[in-house]
Structure formats: structure tokens, C-alpha cells
Amino acid sequence: MLSPYTVLDLTDDKGEFAGMLLGDLGADVIKIEPPEGSNSRKMEPFLDGAPDSERSLRYFAFNRNKRGVTLDLNSDDGKLALRSLAEKADFIIESAPPGEMDRLGVGFDVLRQVNPRIVHVAITPFGQDGPYANFAANDLTLAAMSGQMSVQGDPNRPPVRITVPQVWLHASAEAVVGALTAHARMLATGEAQFVDVSAQTAMFWSMLHARLAHPIQGSNFNRGGSVLQLGTLSVPVVYECADGHIVALPSGATMVKMVHWLVADGVVPEEWIEGEDWPIYERNLFQENAVRYPMEEVVDAVSRYIKRRTKAELLELGLREGVTLAPVSTAEDLVRFRHLEERGYWLTAPLPNGSEVRALGVLARPTATPMSVRLWAPALGQHNQEVLGDMLGLSPASAAAASGRKG
Question: What is the mean pLDDT of residues 227-236?
Fold first, then answer.
């Protein structure tokens, strides 16, 4: 899909997912690290029995489909090598602090002189300028300042962020969209493009319709934990089942089917089937019309039914009957998920210590331009000779000087 294009990936943990996505889409991604390696190589979890620079499973997970080189961008040789690579590239993605690339002499204004068709994508916490541009930031503060935390957590407790850090993954995905959009504009105008990606803004988009609640209804959504606020109704949506939890909304549309299951299971008497106008059940509640079975009674019946069954049973039943029953899946549940197995989603990845692990597959399966994993995460400086020597034509001494490494 993107096989004609070359991407220079200078990101650390704040943008490596972007380069991986472009690589999965077929681009030739060249991962450029400082001589000591990206700081993401020092991030947990660590793999036993691997070289120190290859121990990070986090680095391994987000750097497949990339060739890896080192460049010392504090040296003239390293800067010259980067400019030479940029001349041959279509995209450059970096996650340096605002102004850092300019300070090094390899910012957008310099690189577009080298390559007037380059698409330069910069990922930072708050963008290149503005009142917050130089603020310190991490996943927690960005999740809060984006507004996402305002709609997460129990209303009687402090707000929370998603447990597994998500901010830089969202920012990376938006960077890919921005890169491809800018490339289309470059093709139309013939001019180099700069894409300014703010992680705060990327997380703001993840709030979905909560972003527009105030202009539409005059107030913001408030976090409700596992309870959904529908007008004057407070409806639980997370239910305990036999082996964990499942998400279900006992609305009229759900109850049209589920009431038959409740009767068959002996949870409620048969009179429930015709005892309520289920298709307009919540409309009657909203309009304060008389109902035979109050919401509290319906929730109790649904809770008792769900508690007897496993997540897998409920999911299969919901799929078969057209009722939304969504398991709250653990990592183990996902690894064993039958749909992913049957789709052949999982891949076997060779780890740096010689063992193998089940790894995530590609995000889609287009038929005309198949996606694949061609390379696993590179060792530090693994492709220095291939890129700096063979591709750029540097002598061994020049390549060593540019890379900042002797080997």
C-alpha cells in the first residue's frame, strides 16, 4: 500500500507507534536512534536473557517493520547523514521538544530545502507553540488536560485515566492520519508540508460525543462509573457474570429478546413477556407513563440471569440473537478470543533472547495490497551499514562518525 515511500522515524516512546503503522502499511521505515539508543529501550517490561539494549518488550512491540540505524545529531557528520536521508525520504516523523530539531539544524525549514516534497510530522504534548507548548507532560497529565479523565471513574471518587497508557498511542494514530493527509496535499501543491500533532488534542478527540455536550445541551457529561445516565434514569451497564464482568444495557430493545431468556431460565414469570410494551419501555419511563415493571426490577432480573453465565456464553448468545452483550475482556481473554483465532490474527514473533511469543497481527487485511510483518524490531544500529553505507554511500569511517558508534 505504501511500499513506494520511505519514512524516517526519529521518535521515541511518544511516537514509535506511528512509524510502526506506516511500516505495517508497507512503507520502508528507517528508525533513527541516538548512539546510546532510544529511551524507549529502557522502558519496562524487560525480557530476561537478552542483550541490555534489546531487553525492552515495549520497544519490541512498537518497532516492527523498521530498519534501525543510529545517528549522532549533535555531530556535523550525523546531521549531514540525516539531511542526506531526508533527501531520499517522503516522510519524517519526530517527537522532539518544540524547537529542538531547529536547534540541531535539522528542522522543517532546513529539511524542505533539502527535499521540497518532504512531509514533516512533529508529535509533542501540546503542539509547537501556544501557552502550554513547553510545559512538562506525561500520560497522566495529558489524559487530564485533554478532558478525557473528566468522564472516567466513579462520580464519588477522583477521576482516573485508562490503566494502560494510551495518550501517545492516540497521538501516533492521529500523526499517521495527518501524515497521509499532508502527503495528499503535497501531491496537489508540490510543496513540503508540516504536521503539528498535539497529544492533548488527540486525546480530546477520544472523548467522542462528550466533546460537544456543552454546546448542545448546556452542560458537560459527568463521569458515571459503571452507571449510564439517560435523562432522569440511572442505568447500570456493567454486570457481574460467572467469570468476570460484561456490559449490557437493559433497554427496551434489549428486553424484547432478553425477556424470553429470563422466562426460559426461570428468573421471571412468563407474564413478563406480554406484561410490558418493551419496544417503548424507556420512552414510557422518560415520559413518566405507567410501567408494570420498574427499572430497578428489570435490572435485578437481568443481573441474576447474567451472573449464571460466562462471558463467552453471553457473547455468543448476543451475537446469535442480535443483542449487544460486550465482555469486559482481560489480556488472557483476548489471546483466547475465538474470532481472532479463526481470523488468524496472531503472529509468532522471535524475541531477542531466542524464545518466541504470540504477537499482535496487522490492523486490516486488504486483498489488493496485503499487509504483513516483514521485519521485527531492529537491534541497536542493526542496519547502519545497509543504510549509511549501501544506501548513502558513506565510507566505513564516515558512517562510524555519523552513527556515533564504532560497530
Answer: 78
Q: How far is CA 399 from the centre of its chain?
A: 35
**In what helix (H) or strand (E) does residue 202 lie, and over which residues does it extend?**
helix 199-205
What is the C-alpha to C-alpha distance for residues 376 and 354, in angstroms, rounded to an integer? 13
How far is residue 240 from each of residues 10, 89, 249, 302, 371, measured CA to CA in Å?
45, 52, 13, 10, 39
Integer-rounded Cα Rg, in Å, for the chain is 26
- Report which of 66, 76, 78 is spatially closest to residue 36, judged by C-alpha positions: 78
d(CA 95, CA 110): 17
Round to whole Å and give the CA distance between 54 and 379.
6
- CATH no. for 6-207+342-403: 3.40.50.10540
User: Is the predicted pLDDT of residue 363 greater than 60, yes or no?
Assistant: yes
First to last CA, the chain: 34
Comparing C-alpha atoms, which of 271, 266, 375 is closest to residue 28? 375
E strand or H helix at 342 = helix 338-342
What is this structure's pTM? 0.90
Residues in the chain: 407
Distance CA 183, CA 190 (A): 10
Three cell numbers written together for 205: 478527540
Question: Residue 231 has what pLDDT?
Answer: 67
Fold topology of 226-329:
formyl-coa transferase, domain 3 (3.30.1540)
Supply the DSSP symbol for 322.
Answer: T
